[in-house]
Amino acid sequence: MSYFLVIVLAVQTVLGGYLGWRFRWAFGVVLPPWLMAWYVFWPLVALTVMSFPLAYFLSRLLNVELPPGLLFATAVVYGALAIGFATVLIVDALGLIVRRLPFLQSACGYVRQYPHHLGFLILGIVAVQVVWGLYRAHTPRETHLSPVVYKPLKNGEKKLRIVHLSDLHVGRYSSATLMQEMVSRVNRLQPDMIVFTGDIIDNAIQPYFDQEMPRILGELKSRYGVYAILGNHEYFGESPKLNIDAYTRSNMRVLRDEVLHLEEPGITLIGRDDMIRGSRFPPGASPDVVGGRAPLAALTARADPATPWILLDHQPREIDEAVAQKIDIQFSGHTHGGQFFPIDIIVKYLYKNPWKLLTQEHYSLIVSCGFGTWGPPLRYPSYAEIVVADVSFQPADP
């Protein structure tokens, strides 16, 4: 736990120090002197910046149930701080340029005289991003994709509709109403198959039952069944085994390094366990499963090469391996599409395909940015989504 706490504290110190310094510069002349006293101001900054980590992590460590409204509020504040940090950083960078342009010196003088005007403008920009992010996180969209698999189906059909759901992150401040609406929308799509690619539960399992998720998600209907794999968050909670039991009660077939042949359509599902299995990081990951996940080659060795291979793998990292093993189509999640600014910029550099459809040779990778959120319940530029993949199956080119 020590390394993880050091990282968290270092990030929070930089975030709080920078924002506190710029806030004092902008509003120091208009706020009451007692509030600007260092022994009042900086403890308030520290409390604000640490509110979400304290609420999220300490409630787990101490096994204390905090009100969902409090958790939600601290998460929104944390998202606003992250957005504010990036926004102020950009404004400061622009300020360095502007100060060197002679024809803008009058504007610089105005800002030096009335810094709070710039401060209010930045607060307004951040507020708009937060409100818009809340809206997009709670207004799901359908993302329709049309990948091609170059193998025919055994039953002669040309298409399958696969609905892809990922990263629900069911937790204390999740919306059961939103989940119920999701189930209704998915059922109206009349899917042939539904796949969940991990992180269904955020960490604690009890909210899943408190919000009647077994009943709600158990109402999902598809022609060939509902299938799920585990993500990294299934290992952060009490136990992957408890999560599997919860998902089974939701009428999901959970695949853990398994190869499943579906006879009627004639396809092979390969469900990989998450790559964090057996890892010691982050601290708190469940120790009840020993050893890492199986190599993909070991799984494909058990698959029928005459059938289309559909791979479910939470993290879209080992793309070259999937291509080498001749996977036809892969469904992944995990990235959240960056979820909100400025994390989306970082995610674009971390993943070859952080969102939507990537094709390479006869391989297709579909990455969902997810339905739920982790931490701040904000999404911008990404959005909560239901992925609808109308997969075409056709013979390979001669």
CATH architecture assignment name of the largest domain: 4-Layer Sandwich
Q: Segments where pLDDT lies below 50 for 5+ residues?
A: none
Q: In CATH terms, what is the fold-level topology of the largest domain? A: Purple Acid Phosphatase, chain A, domain 2
How many domains in all? Answer: 2
CATH homologous superfamily placement of the largest domain? Metallo-dependent phosphatases
Helix content: 40-55%
Give the strand content.
Answer: 15-25%
Categorize the overall geometry: elongated
Please report the distance between the alpha carbons of the first and last residues: 56 Å
Biggest beta-sheet profile: 7 strands, mixed
Q: How many individual helices? A: 13
SS-derived structural category: alpha/beta
What is the total tally of β strands? 13
Radius of gyration from CA coordinates: 24 Å
What is the H-and-E element order? HHHHHHEEEHEHHEHEEEHEHEHEEE
Assign the CATH class of the largest domain: Alpha Beta
pLDDT averaged residue by residue: 92
Describe the protein's architecture and organization.
The chain has helices at 2-27, 33-36, 38-61, 68-98, 105-113, 115-137, 176-188, 206-210, 213-217, 240-249, 296-300, 319-324, 343-350, and strands at 141-145, 148-149, 159-165, 193-197, 226-229, 253-254, 258-262, 267-271, 309-312, 329-332, 356-360, 363-367, 385-393. It is α/β, with parallel strands linked by helices. The protein folds into two domains: 2-136, no CATH class; 142-393, 4-Layer Sandwich (Purple Acid Phosphatase, chain A, domain 2), CATH 3.60.21. The strands form two sheets. Strands 1, 2, 3, 4, 5, 6 and 13 form a seven-stranded mixed β-sheet that branches. Helix 7 links the parallel strand 3 and strand 4. The longest helix is centred in the N-terminal third of the chain and has 31 residues, at 68-98. It starts with a helix and ends in a 5-residue tail after the last strand. 35% of the residues are buried.
